């Protein structure tokens, strides 16, 4: 008869893909390992909280206990990113902890405990492209305990906000251009002429002013003697042959 439920102390099928050892060697290491991998932690869970929880299973009176706790860190920011390693002094303590602590809640999150082949320096950093865990790269749901949106979704949201901001900026720029053109049109309509236009404007203004003055006084327009002399035709020259 097949078993419906797995044993609580059954080790995980997870294997470290970056380990230099073979799968068989990793299984042998897990069989005697005193290290646990703790997953699904909140980014805000502290080492003190971890110690308080896992110390309840440690056999301190029998010479055991927690050897050390290594908090997982974001590779870029060096801040907690949701996993940890807990090292005990004996394999039995690690198995008991996996049996009784895995599946319980810490910081309102159900945590996962797996036997680990053994911690080595460098494994405390996330392996995702953004520096955290790979699982947080592709997470689509919002998780406040793990930094909000997944990194890919966060990039999509940031790009969406950036495009919306650019659209608003373009709209404001177009509106400013419209207002500027309207103001410029009004200013051009009231702008005084310059150059040749100014001379023509002054001449026309003077001519109109003179006509208006004569019409207002009723005096007939007179022409100066010099102007009449200048306007009179020149006399015909006398043909010298007529005197011969």
UniProtKB/TrEMBL annotation:
UniProtKB keywords: mRNA processing, mRNA splicing, Nucleus, RNA-binding
CDD domains xref list: RRM_NCBP2
InterPro entries membership: NCBP2 (IPR027157), NCBP2_RRM (IPR034148), Nucleotide-bd_a/b_plait_sf (IPR012677), RBD_domain_sf (IPR035979), RRM_dom (IPR000504)
GO biological process, one term: mRNA cis splicing, via spliceosome
Entry annotated with the keyword Nucleus: yes
Family of the protein in this entry: Belongs to the RRM NCBP2 family.
Protein name: Nuclear cap-binding protein subunit 2
Natural source organism: Malassezia pachydermatis
């Amino acid at each position: 008869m097949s078993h419906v439920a797995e044993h609580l102390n059954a080790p995980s099928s997870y294997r470290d893909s970056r380990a230099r050892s073979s799968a068989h060697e990793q299984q042998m290491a897990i069989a005697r390992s005193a290290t646990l991998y703790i997953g699904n932690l909140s980014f805000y869970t502290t080492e003190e909280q971890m110690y308080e929880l896992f110390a309840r299973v440690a056999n301190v009176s029998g010479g055991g206990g927690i050897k050390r706790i290594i908090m997982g860190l974001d590779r870029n920011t060096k801040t907690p990113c949701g996993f940890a390693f807990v090292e005990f002094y004996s394999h039995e303590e690690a198995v008991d902890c996996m049996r009784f602590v895995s599946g319980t809640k810490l910081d309102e999150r159900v945590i996962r405990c797996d036997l680990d082949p053994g911690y080595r320096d460098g494994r405390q950093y996330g392996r995702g492209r953004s520096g955290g865990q790979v699982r947080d790269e592709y997470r689509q749901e919002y998780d406040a305990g793990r930094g909000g949106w997944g990194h890919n979704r966060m990039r999509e949201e940031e790009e969406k906000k950036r495009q919306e901001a650019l659209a608003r900026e373009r709209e404001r720029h177009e509106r400013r251009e419209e207002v500027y053109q309207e103001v410029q049109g009004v200013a051009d309509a009231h702008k005084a002429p310059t150059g040749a236009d100014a001379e023509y404007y002054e001449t026309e203004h003077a001519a109109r002013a003179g006509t208006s003055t004569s019409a207002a006084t009723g005096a007939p327009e007179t022409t100066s003697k010099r102007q009449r002399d200048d306007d009179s035709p020149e006399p015909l020259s006398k043909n010298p042959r007529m005197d011969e």
